Amino acid sequence: MNYSLYAPHFILRKMQNSRGGQHLHGILHRVEGDYENARIWYREASGTETPPTEVTNREGEDVFVEFWARQTQLLKDTDAEKIEDKAQRARAAAIAFVDRVEKMKEQSKGQVFEAGLGTAERKELEDISKAELNAIAEWAGKKFGWESWGEGVGGAKDASSAYTGNTQEQKEVFMKQMGEGIRSF
Predict the structure, then answer these.
(1) More confident residue, 171 or 27
(2) Cα–Cα nearest to 49, from 35, 59, 61, 60
(3) Which of 68, 97, 108, 173 is the most buried (most CB within 10 A)?
């Protein structure tokens, strides 16, 4: 993302009906501190929020479900701890993670970087975040390749195949929002 939020948002909007794209979109919103949108995209990535449509690409859904379903420590001492359905458990763990990140940030009187600095809670959340990034990067690397793209090396694939179409409802929302204009951050 390299401190540029416009480019990743543009690309991820093109992947908004792809489970892998939804997962990445959730990460992006979490990193920028937009926790409510992070929760929305995580719910979509879990495959439990809305049924697939004619434009849904379910690739990457398994990465989200497998990763977050293992994060059961996030559900300890909650009703969600008893959820048996793997996708629902993954969704609950991902939302619990975002909740904890948001709570830590809110408790900090300084910059986001200072939130929980030096605490076991922060280390745990950082470790989970790094593991999540590794899981989604591993999936993307296997799907699209690891080689440099555009340097004549070959091996890396054009990822535009991950772009999805929009539903009629999404097209109407975009029209009301004045197209896909530049967002302000």
Answers:
(1) 27
(2) 61
(3) 68
Please state at what angle helix 86-107 crosses helix 120-144, rounded to 10 degrees. Answer: 130
pTM for this model (two decimals): 0.77
Residue 25 lies in a domain: yes
DSSP annotation of 182 reads: P
The reply to whether 139 falls in a domain is: yes
pLDDT attached to residue 170: 55
Query: Are the C-beta atoms of residues 31 and 136 closer than 8 Å to each other?
Result: no
Please name the helix (run of DSSP H) or strand (run of DSSP E) that holds residue 134, with its range, or none: helix 120-144
Domain total of the chain: 1
Question: Could you tell me which of 162, 170, 145 has the C-alpha nearest to residue 22?
Answer: 162
pLDDT at residue 108 above 90? no
Give the span between the Cα atoms of 132 and 30, in whole angstroms.
Answer: 12
Q: Does residue 48 sit within a domain? A: yes
In this structure, of 16-20, 101-105, 123-127, the range with the lowest mean pLDDT score is 16-20
Query: Three-class SS of residue 76?
Result: coil
- Which amino acid, residue 50? T
Range of the domain at 89: 6-176
pLDDT score, position 125: 95
Residues 142-153: tens digit of each pLDDT: 877 766 555 545
Residue that is written with structure tokens 């340097």 in the block: 151
